[in-house]
Automatic annotation (TrEMBL):
Species this chain originates from: Sphingomonas agrestis
Protein's UniProt name: asparagine synthase (glutamine-hydrolyzing)
Coiled-coil stretches: none
Gene3D superfamilies: HUPs (3.40.50.620)
Class of this enzyme: ligase
Pathways involved: Amino-acid biosynthesis; L-asparagine biosynthesis; L-asparagine from L-aspartate (L-Gln route): step 1/1
Catalytic activity as recorded in UniProt: L-aspartate + L-glutamine + ATP + H2O = L-asparagine + L-glutamate + AMP + diphosphate + H(+)
């Protein structure tokens, strides 16, 4: 069976081609989605195209009236696109392995300014390259390829109604359930067998429910990863979800002492540092289960926290106050948000009042400055947000936080071993799901004192009681902190003797302090260490010398 990621569909006149998985937007229902007919859409503009189709695709079309091509990346971001300047031509590809670079004569040097900025905000990698002559096409954007240098990318998504929505959609909850169910089933329809990473939490349980309620349990296998640290063992919840559908479940117990970061960092490095795929234990286990059951895809619940709004924060009440006025001060929304965010009601009311009289300032995303060198700290002062977020100033603050979280989820499409072995599918980040969630006010998604309350109600018939009524979330922080300890000698030598410290991009004393016992036990200063090790491996591979 042909890998759906690389399936090609072309219209009769060869003016429009799709690579990947693509569906008709109007045909989306809870039963799935219908395939597109290329003829009627071949003449549409790039912007109209992304409104009438959805999927994990790249569209390539001839430029009308002149030589060259237009490349469109779908707003879901399921397929990566990098454009490389290669002599007198431009090369567009999902990745640039060494054999392809050698064949095309591409040897891009490191852009140290971009490297400094990415260290300050690693999520910059979802829309900007750290190599000269290499360009990342952001999701929901298009770029024209005419000659050796690609044009400036054009934003096709998000539409204005997302950035400037004035009123809620009364059919929002029904639309959301249909979008989730239809997207999961449509994306799965391209695969004969698939694996579901079943965490035991809400999001992956919803994905499994959408698949299994259609009767696909014989075609799928589930894998659960449990860690022997506080909050990391969710096997009982995963078993309950699997039992609900009589689905096959494989349990993998991960031990921090077996996680070796150098296994993934000492070989060939992709065009961006590995961020999402640093846990080689998880990578190998997921690949192993998929291969054991001949699965061509691995489905996850990634993105659910963002789209269903698992963000306990006072601005939810601020959004409500903007909609209903002063009565929000004494509302159940304000009370419940105080409970969810572990704040006093006075704090929430204070946020409402400050917003009413002076607005709410954006919170700047920043990495721990004590571990960054001066150049990286200075780079972090600039606006490094995803291009989707340009123009979002008019959004209510909680909605803006949600949209930023959704944009940051693009890093789940970064390079991993899993995505090399099978299609790695995050259906909750599909364009119709994201748009359906953003049409529902934050206080509707979060009503009550629990988390993701609307999602629990909408999909409650798929959930066992232990998941439906669960209030906490699995936590693997202690596992990864222990993994840092287990890899401490290697990490210390690798980072302190590395090129990033030598170039002043990372701060040696700050890294050394983060790797001391007191920091590892009592603080979260080590949370970025594995990420910085990935940047170090990448910088050495791509030619940054000490």
């Amino acid at each position: 069976m042909t890998d759906p990621r690389w399936a090609v569909a072309m219209d009769r006149d060869e003016t429009l081609a799709f690579i990947g998985v693509v569906f008709d937007r109007e045909g989306l229902s809870d039963a799935g989605a219908r395939d597109i007919t290329l003829g009627p859409i071949a003449a549409l503009s790039d912007g109209a195209l992304v409104r009438c189709v959805w999927g994990n695709y790249v569209a390539i079309r001839r430029l009308p009236g002149r030589p060259g091509l237009s490349v469109v990346r779908d707003p879901g971001g399921g397929l990566a696109v990098v454009v490389a300047e290669a002599g007198d031509s431009a090369l567009a590809a999902p990745c640039l392995p060494r054999w392809l670079r050698d064949a095309a004569g591409i040897a891009p040097p490191i852009d140290t300014d971009a490297l400094a900025a990415a260290l300050a905000n690693p999520l910059l990698l979802t829309h900007r390259s750290m190599l000269h002559g290499i360009h990342v096409l952001p999701a929901g954007h298009a770029v024209d390829l005419v000659g050796a240098k690609p044009g400036r990318s054009r934003a096709l998504w998000p539409p204005g109604e997302i950035l400037h929505r004035e009123a809620e959609d009364p059919q929002g909850p029904e639309t959301l359930r249909a979008a989730v169910t239809g997207c999961v089933r449509a994306l799965a329809s391209r695969h004969k067998r698939l694996t579901v990473e079943l965490s035991g939490g809400l999001d992956s349980a919803i994905v499994l429910g959408a698949l299994a309620s259609e009767g696909r349990t014989a075609d799928l296998s589930c894998v659960n990863f449990a860690v022997a640290h506080a909050g990391g063992d969710e096997r009982s919840e995963a078993r309950a979800v699997a039992d609900r559908w009589q689905a096959r479940l494989v349990e993998v117990t991960a031990a921090a002492e077996t996680l070796r970061f150098q296994d993934v960092l000492c070989g060939e490095q992709p065009v961006e540092p590995v961020l999402y795929g640093l846990d080689v234990t998880l990578e190998r286990a997921s690949i192993g289960v998929a291969r054991a059951f001949d699965a061509s895809a691995i489905f996850t619940g990634q993105g659910g926290d963002a789209v269903f709004f698992n963000l306990p924060t006072a601005p939810v009440a601020v959004d409500y106050a903007r909609a209903v006025g002063w009565r929000a001060l004494w509302s159940r929304v304000a009370y419940h948000e105080a409970q969810r965010s572990y704040r006093s009601l006075w704090h929430v009311q204070g946020r409402i009042l400050r917003d009413r009289f002076g607005g709410t300032r954006r919170t700047r995303y920043a990495m721990p400055g004590s571990q960054l060198g001066r150049t990286a700290v200075a780079a972090g002062e600039h606006d490094l947000r995803h291009p989707w977020l340009h123009g979002d100033e008019g959004m209510p603050p909680a909605r803006r936080m949600q949209f930023e979280a959704i944009a940051n989820c693009q890093h789940f499409y970064g390079p991993t071993w899993r995505s090399s072995a099978a299609a790695l599918v995050h259906p909750l980040l599909a364009q119709p799901v994201v748009e359906a969630c953003l049409a529902i006010p934050a206080w509707r998604l979060t009503h009550g004192s629990g988390n993701r309350a609307l999602a629990r109600e909408l999909f409650g018939d798929w959930l066992p009681e232990v998941v439906r009524n669960r209030r906490n979330k699995g936590e693997a922080t202690n596992y990864y902190r222990r993994a840092i300890v287990e890899n401490l000698p290697w990490l210390r030598d690798f980072l302190l003797g590395g090129v990033l410290v030598a170039h002043g991009l990372l701060d040696g004393p700050g890294i050394d302090a983060a790797l001391r016992d007191t920091s590892l036990i009592w603080t979260d200063q080590s949370r970025m260490i594995a990420v910085y090790a990935s940047f170090e491996a990448w910088a050495r591979y791509w030619g940054l010398s000490s």
